[in-house]
Each structure stands twice: as C-alpha cells, then as structure tokens.
Amino acid sequence: MNSQEALDWLCETFEEPPGRIGETTTREEIPGWDSLGTLSLIAALDERFDIHLSEQDIDGLKGVRDIFELLRRHDALSA
Amino acid sequence: MMSNFEGRWVVVTGASSGIGRAVAIELARHGARLLLVGRNAERLAETAAALDGAEHRQLVLDLARLDLIAGAIADARKDVGLLYGLCHAAGVVETRPLSANTVQVVQSQLDVNVLAGLELARAVCRRDAMLPEGGSILFISSVYGWVGMPGQIGYCATKGALAAAARAMAIELARRRIRVNCLSPGLVMTRMTEEALEKLSPEQGAKLKSAYPLGVGQPEDVARAAVFLLGPGSAWITGVDLPVDGGYTAQ
C-alpha cells in the first residue's frame, strides 16, 4: 500500500470524506478518532494488515505520522 | 400542517405497505423528506404518490441482500445530501413450531429484521452521511420482543435482538446526539399480519384479537408514535422500547 492508499484507508476507517486526512494530520484534528475511533483503528489494522495492537499501543499514536511509521515497521507501507 | 422535520431526510424501510407506509405518510405530513425503501417498485411508487411534498426518493432494494445496503445508502446520500433519520419498519415473519423451526427459517428472519436494520444504521450513521447536529434512529420491534407466543420463536428472537441492539447503539451514539429507540407494536392489521392470521383458524384469530384491551391497532396508531420518537419532541428520549399495543403487554 502506498501513502495515498493509506490515507484513503484512514479516511474510510474514521468515516471522513476522502482528502480530509493528510500525512501531518494529528489525532485531535480527526473527529472520528475518539475512544471508539481507537477501537475502529485497532480492528482495521487487524483486518487489513494483520497487525495486532493493544489499546495502550494505540494511545501512543498521536497522528497520521505515527500510524505511517507503524505501518512501515510492519512492512505494510511502500514509500 | 406541522413542519417539525424542516425538510430533513429520513430513510424508511418497508415503505411499500403496512406500518412502513403509514410512517412515511405521517413523516411527510410533518415536513420530512423521505427515502422510501422497499422490494416492490410498483407499491413503492404508490406510497410515494400518497405523500405530501414532492422531493421524495424511492429505493428498490431487497434487504435480504445485506451486502448491497451500504452502497445503496451511500449512493442515496450522494444524491440528497446528509441524512437525519432511519425508520426500519421492514420485517418478515415465519410462523413455525419449534419442530419446524430450522436454522434457515430463523436466519431469513434475522437477516431482514435484525441484520439489515443494523447495516442500515451503520450506513446512515457514518460521519460522512449523517447531519453533524445528530439524528434519530427507530427500529420497529414488536410486542413479541416482550412476550412469547407459540409458533413465533424465530420472530420473537429477532424482535428481542433489535431492542437489545438499539440500547447498545443508543449509548454508543449519544455522544454524537444520535438517538436510537424501538417501538413495539401489537397486532396491527397489515398485509403481513393478515397473511399470518390466514394460517390460523378463525377461532384462533378471533382469540388473538380479543387479547387486546383496546382492540386491534391501525398502522396510523403506530405511525403517530413513530413520528414522535423520530422527531424533535423526543429529544431527551433514547434507548427506549415503547409498546404501542392497546394495552396488550400491560396484562
């Protein structure tokens, strides 16, 4: 998955219109990333990438940059 | 005429007949714009023709096709803009004693009565589909979600499931000011109930009807209560399952 696809996937996960989430977007800037959004993200990472994280791990993610870094660490993001 | 809904869009399933049709008519009288969902294009068109106002849409969709629901609602949303509400009035009943109550019989009722309702809510409540101010979701359950009846094991299961799911949804969605409620009608004379009654003897049918302290209900009785739960008058009501049943469950 490339960066643009990953951003689209995040938009879908947080139910934001396409284009609303960018590489520098922080957690606070995404309305759907509340405690329930966190559960959606955990489920989405599991389903799409087979990445298993705890809620604690996700708490450490402050924005899209951190998610991208996570995806790269799991070889899920090209570029 | 009242205009509580001020042109807000409400999805109503089961709109071709019975309770769904009556709810659609009553909502239109109160200024809502309707997305009518049903299987039968002809009967859906008849419902549309009976509505006040002209901008309503018709969506011919078989809710047993669970995989098509998200896409259909997304398309409708692109057409009409943000949505306010959902009334899931579509339902099927299969009267079977336990000995004939196969998995298939229960599954077909679960698919339309429960799973389609949840799928519709999931699609309508998306952050990019619903009005940011919030909205109102109403599932038409049944007194048979409250009490049992021979031959109705599957149906009762689905109606109880709806009520429980609605409570969880209500608590989860309150933060977004989306209310979620159920309405439990008693015996209302519609195509669905008439077909079910035909399978009973006249004596059994009469006995069933006589169990209602205020007699059998009309679709309009349910529709008026539905409009209340969908509209601004019930702004502080969420997670309830309101019996509209002529006193049946109070006995």
Summarize the structure.
The complex is a heterodimer of chains A (79) and B (251). Chain A has 79 residues and is mainly α. Chain A is built from four helices and no strands.
Give the total of domains of chain A. Answer: 1
Q: Outline of chain A, from the CA principal axes?
A: globular
What's the alpha carbon Rg of chain B, rounded to whole Å?
17 Å
Radius of gyration over C-alpha positions of chain A, nearest whole angstrom: 11 Å
Supply the number of structural domains of chain B: 1
Structural class of chain A: mainly alpha
The CATH architecture name of chain A reads: Orthogonal Bundle
What is the N-to-C succession of helices and strands of chain B?
EHEHEHEHEHEHHHE
How would you explain this protein's 3D organization?
The complex is a heterodimer of chains A (79) and B (251). By secondary structure, chain A is an all-alpha fold. Helices cover 52% and strands 0% of the residues of chain A. Chain B has helices at residues 18-29, 41-49, 66-80, 103-124, 153-173, 191-198, 202-210, 219-230, and strands at 9-13, 33-38, 57-60, 85-88, 135-140, 178-185, 241-244. In chain B, helix 4 links the parallel strand 4 (85-88) and strand 5. Chain B starts with 8 loop residues before the first strand and ends in a 7-residue tail after the last strand. Chain B is 43% helix and 15% strand. A seven-stranded parallel beta sheet of chain B has the order 3-2-1-4-5-6-7, sandwiched between helices. The mean pLDDT of chain B is 96. Chain B is globular. Chain A binds chain B through residues 14-17, 31-32, 34, 36, and chain B through 126-129, 172, 175.
